[in-house]
Amino acid sequence: IQTNLIQTNLIQTNLIQTDLIQTNLIQTNLIQTNLIDQKTRL
């Protein structure tokens, strides 16, 4: 039972981490495109 609890905890934190990484990637992509847009306007 204990090992099962540890395993599910690891899986849960992994899911949270990948979600954070994904949103971070999306955010940086948005920032990059915004910078590109500003450069072309100039």
The succession of helices and strands, N to C, reads H
Estimate the global geometry from the Cα principal axes: rod-shaped
In helices, the fraction of residues equals over 70%
Largest sheet composition: none
Radius of gyration: 18 Å
Please count the helical segments.
1
Q: Report mean pLDDT, rounded to a whole number.
A: 81
List segments where confidence is low: pLDDT < 50 over at least 5 consecutive residues: none
- What proportion strand? under 5%
Overview in brief:
By secondary structure, this protein is mainly alpha-helical. It has one helix at 2-41. The chain contains 1 helix and no strands.
How is this structure best described in words?
The structure is a single chain. This protein is mainly α and about 40 residues long. It has one helix and no strands. The mean pLDDT is about 80.
Outline the secondary-structure elements.
Layout: H1 2-41
Considering the chains and any ligands shown, give keywords for the structure:
mainly alpha
